[in-house]
Design goal:
Blueprint: H1 2-20, E1 26-39, E2 44-49, E3 53-57, E4 62-68, E5 73-74, H2 77-84, E6 96-103, E7 115-127, E8 130-143, E9 146-156, H3 168-172, E10 176-186
Antiparallel strand pairs: 1-2, 1-3, 1-10, 2-5, 3-4, 4-6, 6-7, 7-8, 8-9, 9-10
């Protein structure tokens, strides 16, 4: 008799518990585009990466990006070779870059209402084994229940141990590059 009462009460306990626990809304972006742009008097260089992934927890503001570094595509094969080399990003030893952070103004972003929201993100960026605290802003757009995010910011290569003193890279690659991120999130 006691077991039967417990079995019958269990669904009610689960229902009541679920009503008071906020759901975790973890979104994943596998439709992610990250690009960088370098401009010098010698040449402009652009590279695109469509293999990055990102997660966004709408209840906590936690956000993570993982970027496979060998997936950047360049206009010229020689640029790709230089980029992946030991003298530049050494992508064999450091195959991924990562950002782990949090939306600091989460209370100003309504993931349940269509609109565009300015979001401020603070976290740690790791590239080529070097980590640096960063703060950036972006736009989160909610449309028809779908969430997308985008941001453009500058990144100083020397902050991540990427420096050139002489030779072609020193004149062809800007010391500060522009990074653009665009991601579409889904459950």
């Amino acid at each position: 008799m006691k077991i039967r009462s417990i079995v019958l009460a269990l669904p009610f306990v689960m229902l009541i518990t679920a009503a008071f626990v906020s759901p975790v809304a973890k979104l994943v972006s596998q439709k992610t585009h990250i690009s960088f742009f370098s401009s010098t008097p010698v040449e402009d260089i652009t590279a695109d990466n469509y293999k990055a992934t990102s997660t966004l927890d709408t209840s906590t503001g936690d956000i993570v990006f993982s970027v496979p570094m060998q997936s950047f595509e360049f206009e010229k094969a020689l640029m790709q070779k230089h980029y992946n080399s030991k003298n530049f990003l050494n992508t064999k030893s450091f195959p991924k870059s990562k950002f782990v952070g949090k939306i600091t103004n989460l209370d100003e972003v309504d993931f349940t209402k269509d609109g565009s929201y300015e979001a401020f993100v603070k976290g740690t960026m790791t590239i080529k084994g070097e980590s640096k605290d960063v703060q950036e802003k972006g736009i989160i757009t909610v449309s028809g229940g779908k969430v997308s995010a985008e941001s453009t910011f500058e990144l100083t290569l020397a902050d991540y141990g990427i420096t050139f003193e002489k030779g072609k890279p020193a004149s062809n690659i800007a010391k500060t590059i522009e990074i653009t991120f665009i991601g579409e999130y889904s459950k």
